[in-house]
Amino acid sequence: MIPISAIVDYKNRFGSKWKDEPYRSGFDQRLLSKAFAERGFSLTFTPFSEVFASGTNWKDRLVLYTSSEEIGRNYKPFIEDIVEGLAVAGAHLLPAEPFLRAHDDKVFMEILRDQLLGEELSGIKSRGFGTLEEFQSALDGGQLTFPCVLKGAFGAMSRNVALARNAAEALREVKRLSRTPHYRFEWRDYLRSKRWPGYLRESLYQQRLVVQPFIPGLDGDWKVLVYGDQYYVLKRHIRPGDFRASGSHMDYRAGLESGITPEILSFVEKIYQRLDVPHLSADIAFDGKRSYLIEFQTVYFGTSTQAEFCKEYFIRRGESWTHEPNTMSQEEVFAWGLSHYLKRHPELLGK
Questions:
Q1: Taking a C-beta distance cutoff of 8 angstroms, is the pair 209, 272 a contact?
Q2: Same domain flag for 238 and 305
Q3: According to the model, what pLDDT value does residue 199 have?
C-alpha cells in the first residue's frame, strides 16, 4: 500500500460532499479509505493543528488537504499556513499549494488563469484591483471596456457579481462590492488629513475585486467536473433578464441532455491537462464561435453535478468522446481521480 495523508479541519471534516450525513460533514472517511485501499493506497487522516506537532517526516509524502468556506473566512488562512509549511517541508501536495490559495479567492484564481493558461487558451483576460482608487485609475486611463462583469474576491452561486454597462454603473457597483467600513478609524484618519498637509487618507474601499469581459449572447453555461478521465456535465440556463447561470436553478440538463459538444469537452480536457491537477470543477461558456473558461476550482468544490444530476459521464476513447453510466459514489470518484493523476506522475511514487 502506498501511504497518503489527508489533512482534516477542526471539525474532522475532509472535502465537500453532496448530501453528506451529518449535514456539512464532508466525505465519509470510512468509505473514502475503502475506495483508496481498492486502488492500492493507505489513507490516514491528520488534523491541521497536528501536522507539525505530530513529528511526521513530511518530505516526499503524498498529501491531500481540505479547505474551508466558513463565514468570515477566519480559518482558511490557518489552512493556508499549514499547507505552505508542508510545501516547505517537501511534501507532495495534491493539488499544489497555489490551487488552495485560488479556492474561494477569485483574484488569485485569475492570476493562476493568466499565468498557467493565458488568454489564448482560456478565452478571457481579466483585471484585479485591491481598492476603488486602483479601479478608478484604470478607468480614467481608458484601460477598461464595457459592458463588463464585476466580481468580489469571495462568494459562490453568483453572489457578489454585477454587470456594468458603462463607467457610472461600474463605479456604483465597485463601491458596493469593495466598501470596508471601519468607522472609528475613518474618523481618526480624516483628522490626520486635516493635521498633516499632503497626507493621503487610506482607502475606504479595500475589498478586492475582479473585472471580466462580458460575453454576450449566452443562454447559459456548463459546469464540468473532471476526475481523471471522467467528465461529468451539467448545463445551467440563465434566468430571463439576468446574465448569470451559476445559482440560477434554471432548467438544469445533465449528461447526454446537456447539449455539450465534443469540441467543448476537448477544450475542458486541454484546461485540465494544462493545470495538471487531480480534480477540476470548471464553468464553461460557448458563444457559438469559441469556448471560454469562466471560473475554475481544484479543491473543495461542489459535487452535486456528479452525485445528483448525471446518469452518465463522458470519456475519451482514442480520437472521439463517448459516455459510460455513472455508477461511482462521491468517495469512489474522488479516489479514482487521484489514482488516475498519480498514474500520470509516477515520479511522485518514487518510480
A1: no
A2: yes
A3: 83
Cα angle 101, 164, 151 (rounded to 5 degrees) comes to 10
Out of 72, 94, 116, a domain closes at 94
Query: Last residue of some domain: 50, 78, 94?
Result: 94
| Best CA proximity match to 305, nearest among 277, 271, 330 | 330
Question: How far is the C-alpha of 246 from the C-alpha of 145, rounded, in Å?
Answer: 23
| Helix residue ranges per DSSP H, the chain | 29-37, 76-88, 97-102, 106-112, 118-122, 132-140, 167-178, 183-195, 262-275, 304, 330-344
Q: How far apart are alpha carbons 30 and 222 in whole angstroms? A: 32
441532455: which residue's cell?
Answer: 257
| Cell numbers representing residue 163 in the block | 454587470
d(CA 22, CA 12): 12
Residue 75 pLDDT > 70, yes or no?
yes
Query: Which of 75-89, 178-192, 227-241 comes out lowest in average pLDDT?
Result: 178-192
d(CA 180, CA 174): 12
Q: Which residues, 6 or more positions from 121, have their beta carbon under 8 angstroms from its beta carbon? A: 270, 271, 274, 293
Question: 245, 286 in Cβ contact below 8 A?
Answer: no
Cell 510545501: give the residue: 87
Q: How many helices (H) and strands (E) does the chain have?
A: 11, 15
Alpha-carbon span 186 to 35, nearest angstrom: 54
Nearest to 307 by CA among 16, 11, 9: 16
Burial (CB count within 10 angstroms: exposed 0-12, middle 13-18, buried 19+), residue 237: middle
Containing H/E element for 95? none
CATH number at residue 200: 3.30.1490
The number of domains in the chain is 3
Count of other CB atoms within 10 angstroms of residue 103 = 21
pTM: 0.93
Q: Which residue has the cell 459521464?
A: 313
Identify the burial level of 239 via C-beta atoms within 10 angstroms of its C-beta, where 0-12 means exposed, 13-18 middle and 19 or more buried.
Answer: middle
At residue 337, the pLDDT reads 98
The closest of 146, 151, 144 to 109, measured between CA atoms, is: 151
